[in-house]
Write a structure and sequence with these properties.
The structure is a homodimer of 236-residue chains. In chain A, the strands form three sheets. In chain A, strands 4-5-6-9-8-7 form a six-stranded antiparallel sheet. Chain A has 236 residues and is α+β, with helices and mostly antiparallel strands. The model of chain A has no long low-confidence stretch (mean pLDDT 91). The radius of gyration of chain A is 23 Å and the shape is elongated. In chain A, strand 1 and strand 2 form a beta hairpin. Chain A folds into two domains: 64 residues, Arc Repressor Mutant, subunit A; 160 residues, Chorismate lyase (3-Layer(aba) Sandwich). Chain A contains eight helices and ten strands. Strand 10 of chain A pairs antiparallel with strand 7 of chain B, so a sheet runs across the interface. Chain A binds a DNA duplex (21 and 21 nucleotides) through helix 3.
Chain lengths: 236, 236
DNA sequence: ACGTATTTGTTCGTATGTATC
DNA sequence: GGATACATACGAACAAATACG
């Protein structure tokens, strides 16, 4: 070579271009070091030097024994005063989306009843939603509302496809986050499928209680986020 | 039996007693259904009915193909205005503990520098600590402080074994949480060992920036919690 | 529970080109 | 030119983590 540019730099540039160009999607596995060494007809060390550069630039992540993976672009989910999925995502200049998974009226179980301060068995509306960001699934969230307070909520939701707007049609103009609990655990088989995760990816689970402006509890929600694509931010 | 109490209830009671009495520690594997069936001289179905009852009560967790496990008693970690491990744990009527893993002075890397709003390479004190609750490891936390502002911090820490008290001896009486980011990921091999986790357990990772009462950034901390033993609580 | 294959991590040694004094 | 230091590149072997049957 007489280019005056180190081979490993050229390789790093080529790979960076491949990633930027979408040849490897976020989170996808890159070819092995051996395969890349063959492709570029260089020693494995040279490929490793190029990959180290990409790691420094935060473009890929290397896991011993598993491989090299294109970095996920993580969504920074600002958990503020107001729990509003679409607003929070939009403020990151990303495209919020999603679809309804289930919606039904059912009696409150122990957990829901305790959170909403109602008696066990009291009817609640349950709305379960898949949340998407930039057309990729990111969360499954189950929301529970006392049925008596919000008649017709599910019907409204089917028209509006937005919890905020559905509550507005029930006469609730504003609601606030009271408390949020955060856990992490291994994803269940169903979560792996719905969130399109690779096995062993954890889920970040939040349990939130939200109130109206009078402090009355109006919603209990459980959300499960794909842990590799999200970061929750709590500011004081 | 002619006791008038269903056999499965008696078995459930016995097992619940065993667990409460500490015969099986939190997170430990219980005997297999087959073994329990033999021990109580009943059919496996009867044991399963008893276990189902314990699951309902939240005392155990069943994983298909792996076994039945005593539920971890999860620590409710209230992430409030003041980041103080011992205080937060004590307020749950649990015994906080821990030990120093590493302490050294080093130049700030990109991440630390950005968080503390200092130049890359500026000297910082790094204190890495293992956190324990009721004598069980629960967290690994790395704390970074600008060295110039807190001379002798590491020395004080070696005497005090408490960040709050060490900062006090540097003249800082109070400090506050500014922002906290929460992530979840698979635990590394080292984390598995240090936190005494079983493979594939996730870690809950928090990244916190803390300030003095004037709002000046004085600490950047990364904590990795054993996800199966902790729940973070953020109240508004 | 265990061995086997795969993949990345580490450490030797060797050689060459380039910049500096 | 010569001496030296440094970055680059190749080769081989083994260690460590992971995946899979």
């Amino acid at each position: 070579m007489q280019t005056g540019i180190a081979v490993w730099r050229q390789i790093a540039e080529t790979l960076a271009g491949d990633i930027a160009g979408g040849a490897f999607g976020p989170g996808e596995k890159m070819p092995t070091e051996a395969a890349l060494a063959q492709r570029f007809a260089v020693n494995r060390h040279t490929v490793r030097r190029a990959i180290a550069d990409l790691v420094d630039r935060g473009m890929v992540r290397v896991e011993q024994g598993r491989g090299t993976f294109v970095a996920e672009d993580v969504v920074e989910y600002a958990v503020g005063d107001r729990p509003r999925f679409a607003e929070i995502i939009s403020s990151q200049r990303r495209a919020p989306g999603g679809r309804l998974l289930r919606a039904q009226r059912l009696p409150a179980d122990e957990q829901v009843a305790a959170a909403l301060r109602i008696k066990r068995g009291t009817p609640v509306h349950m709305i379960e939603r898949l949340g998407e960001v930039d057309d990729r699934p990111i969360s499954i969230s189950s929301h529970y509302f006392p049925a008596k307070r919000f008649p017709g909520l599910i019907h409204y939701y089917q028209e509006e496809q937005s919890i905020t707007r559905s509550l507005a049609r029930c006469g609730l103009s504003d609601y606030l986050r009271l408390t949020t609990r955060v856990r992490a655990r291994r994803a269940s088989a169903e979560e792996l499928r719905t969130l399109q995760l690779t096995p062993n990816t954890p889920v970040l689970e939040t349990e939130a209680i939200n109130t109206d402006t009078d402090g009355k509890r109006i919603e209990f929600g459980i959300s499960r986020f794909a842990a590799n694509r999200i970061e929750l931010i709590f500011d004081s």
